[in-house]
Amino acid sequence: MNLRRIGVLVAKEFRHGTSSLFFILAIVYPIVLSLLITLVFGDLFSQRPRLGVVDLGDSAVTATLSSYSQLEVIPYADEATLRQDVERGKVVGGVVLPTGLDETLRANASVELLTLRWGQALAKDLALIDATVDRALLEVGELPQPIQVTLIPLGKVNTTTWEQRLVPLLVLLTILIGGTMLPASALVDEKQHRTLGALVTTPTTLMDVYLSKMVMGVSISTVMGIVVLLLNRSLGNQPTLLLGTLLISAVGASAFGILIGSMLKDSNALMATFKSMGLLLYAPALVELFPRIPNWVAWLFPSYYIMNPVIEVSQNGAGVAEISWKLMVLCALIGTMILIMVKRVEYQQQQLALAK
Questions:
Q1: For the residues of 269-331, what is the DSSP string, one character each?
Q2: DSSP readout, 208-222?
Q3: Can you say whether the dihedral through the CA atoms of 64, 69, 71, 73 is positive or negative?
């Protein structure tokens, strides 16, 4: 193994590999999918209904509504803009607060509010908005509330939105495309174009070639992982730990990609392999989509240890202690794959020597 030769090979990969399908997918696909998830699932499947508020008199009702966790309150400067957004469904409902509202409420006088509703809104969302607005009016007017309701959640409470649930799948896709599929396809291309044998006739060794493609995979998957988390507002507040976790996950994904590429001879076999392994690779992220499935089911899949530490650090603010055992499992898997890779290199070097 020679670091200078590996550096030269990595530069070659980035210079000539940018036109490959998997390289383009590793860069473009995560970004496009992130934007689609944000635009579609972030608005359509949000668990908190959105209420647009036009406040004409700087009323305390606006601040009171914003303090409630059950609604997402969006301020508007004028009624016309609010009407447009309600018609498009960007907000479920809208309310216009007139000038002098607070004084009217405290005087226990009657109040008329202009309220707007989206025609396709769910009945439960409209009922929640009505009840919350009524509560805010009574609170600002210092009036007695006729009913006090105490909610007691039973069972496992899940407050994550669909947008948040899809982030693990997106992160896993990003790491596997850049870290696994890209190195594997690059290695298979070398075999198909018969350039692998030509490379090893120089002082470059087969291990140098493998490591260069692995470095490329680690670099792409780590950078794109950060980009995807940034686009989904999931970077968290521990950048050093997040970067370290992403690097370890990318190394694991790339080592797996090199193993697959070393065992296959053409791109058709490579695509067939990825298709057949699709469910096994992405199963942990699918478990995250449905909270009713027990967490231990995801532990059975190796890709869980690639995805979960990154998600725990970025979304849940976990520290080293919380993810240490998962990182240990991942490092053990990486060590096993590297040992197998060394054996594969020795075997293939013997095959190439016999071919000469």
A1: HHHHHHHHTHHHHHHHHHHHH-TTS-THHHHTSTTHHHHHHHHHHHHH---HHHHHHHHHHHH
A2: HHHHHHHHHHHHHHH
A3: positive
What pLDDT, in 10s, does the model give residues 198-222? 666 777 778 888 888 889 989 999 9
The total of structural domains in the chain comes to 2
Within a domain: residue 189? yes
Range of the domain at 323: 3-41+159-355
Structure tokens at 316: 């849940």
Both structure tokens of 101:
């509202």
Same domain, 20 and 119: no
Residue 54 host element (H or E): strand 50-55
254 versus 163: which is more confidently predicted?
254
Specify the residue for token string 């009171």.
64
The CA-based dihedral angle spanning residues 40, 45, 49, 54, taken in that order and rounded to the nearest 10 degrees = 0
Residues 50, 70: Cα–Cα separation, whole Å = 9
The verdict on 327 and 309 lying in the same domain is: yes
Instruction: Say what the pTM is.
Output: 0.67
Residue 151 in any domain: the answer is no
